[in-house]
Amino acid sequence: MIPGNLKSFLIAEGVMAEPEPTQGPAFPALPSQAGALYSPANPDGVRSGCGNCVHYAYGERSCYLHDPDLAITPSMWCGHHVFSRRPMQAFAQRLPMQVLLPTFSGLVTVPGGVSCDHCCHYQGFVGDSPAGMQLTGTGVCLALVNENGQPVTVEALASCARFEAIS
Ligand code: SF4
Ligand code: SF4
């Protein structure tokens, strides 16, 4: 081990080469809003859940996209949520299609529904109500970036596939 002052001297004299800069761990780039299936706030001001998703089939308590044998309740949610005031009713016949796997859809149970202001990546503006209490407005999402690599502004009642509930 060469002492630091001796190493500096040897580098200055050209006896030793400058050490290569140390490489830190590479951080993966954050996705854009499109890359995370960002959905603006629902038009009725209610948080997102299976109960207001077009893919929900009340008659069977199931989701049209997941395995029909999977018990899905209105207080669940996944990243494929599409708002509708009239979710699908049970289908007499389901189209032959490959089902979504909960492992990949992000299916979770979220009492009260899903929204950015209930997400750990959401930063409300100064002056907002405490996290979890805010029903309107906007904030900054630290999990998504715009084309310049900067955090994006999101609606408090929006949602995306990167949602993670505040613990
Ligand atoms: S599991 Fe996803 S796609 Fe299916 S009803 Fe719920 S939110 Fe909609
Ligand atoms: S705050 Fe959470 S739910 Fe909202 S856009 Fe960001 S990651 Fe998605």
Characterization of this structure:
By secondary structure, the protein is mainly β. It folds into two domains: 29-47 and 115-167, High-Potential Iron-Sulfur Protein, Chain A; 48-110, no CATH class. Helix content is 8%, strand content 14%. It has two helices and seven strands; from the N terminus they run αβββαββββ. The chain has a three-stranded antiparallel beta sheet, with no helix packed on it. Strands 1-2 form a two-stranded antiparallel sheet. Strand 1 and strand 2 (62-63) form a beta hairpin. The longest helix has 9 residues, at 4-12. The chain is elongated and about 85 Å long. The model has no long low-confidence stretch (mean pLDDT 83). The site of one iron/sulfur cluster has 14 residues, from strand 3. One iron/sulfur cluster (SF4) binds at residues 50, 53, 55-56, 63, 65-66, 72, 76-78, 80-81, 107.
Strand content: 5-15%
CATH architecture grouping of the largest domain:
Irregular
Query: If strands are numbered along the chain, what order do they take across the biggest sheet?
Result: 5-6-7
Helix count, DSSP H or I runs of 4 or more residues: 2
Beta strand count = 7
End-to-end gap: 47 Å
Q: Could you give a short account of the major beta sheet?
A: 3 strands, antiparallel
* SS-based class: mainly beta
Binned, the helix content reads under 10%
N-to-C SSE series?
HEEEHEEEE
- Weakly predicted, low-confidence segments: none
Rough outline:
elongated
Cα-atom Rg, whole angstroms? 24 Å
**What's the CATH topology label of the largest domain?**
High-Potential Iron-Sulfur Protein, Chain A
